[in-house]
Amino acid sequence: MSTGHRVDRLPADGSQGEGEITVNVFYSAPEWITLPLFTAGFVALSLLLIVAVRSITRRTVTDSAQWDRVLGYTSSSFSAFFGILLALVAVSVYANYVDAHQSSADEASQISALYRSAGGLPQPLREEMRTAVTDYVHTVIDEDWPAQRKDRVPDASASGVDDIEQVLDAFDPTTLQAHARYSQLLATFDDFVEARSARIDATTLHLPIMFWIVIWIGAIINALLIAMIDVKSQRMHLIMGGLLAVFVAMVMFVTAEMDHPYAGWIAVGPGDFERLLDTFGRP
Fold this sequence. Notes:
- The chain is mostly helical and 283 residues long.
- 76% of the residues lie in helices and 1% in strands.
- The protein has 9 helices and 2 strands; from the N terminus they run E-H-H-H-H-H-H-E-H-H-H.
- The chain has helices spanning 18-28, 31-60, 64-117, 125-149, 158-170, 176-201, 209-227, 234-259, 271-280, and strands at 5-6, 205-206.
- The chain has a two-stranded antiparallel sheet.
- The two termini are 38 Å apart.
């Protein structure tokens, strides 16, 4: 069962709000641009906090031993909770990604079964079924997936489902063997529709905004605690804080990249459907 949350679908006119546009810009940009920019910005913010807070700390702290003891206890407790939060969020996002990939694979498997089972239909229904299935796969690759990469719920392939159903409705079995094949075809079609719905629903999976607010607040608090450490060498202080900021930034970036299963650098692609076309043979 998927552990994600759903967002509202886009309006019928295809318009996007400011939030959707921002998300699309982030996920459409190449990773060799977004990853360095995000990491550099996060590290720069952390280093600025160290420079700003360091001078205040050194002026106000009179008992270094007591300060280090209290700060060490606070940092240890916070790091444990913040680490657990990041781990749980990363696992949840990865589970959504795996669910989306599995839904795509299941749909492709059921489509392949429909194509093979069409061999038991009489002509011209056999050819009509295989044509309808092949056209559906083309629509998924050429229209559904580009929409999903933009975090839009796709609907272009819905007509292809209707075409396949119409071919099934046109078949009138007259023998027990034909009835058995027809029942199997109907069961496969039902499984295909269910898998398609799961694949489309995965487009709307993402973490609630409150999770990201808590993560950002936690990251800032973590940087502040590092900045409040009473280190004599400013260079050592900056190096220590910068290295930790790099790791935290990369964890947050990877989590954000997987947060939308079909968009971004780490995304589910239409490879399963493209391999189907290699099996079917392109027109």
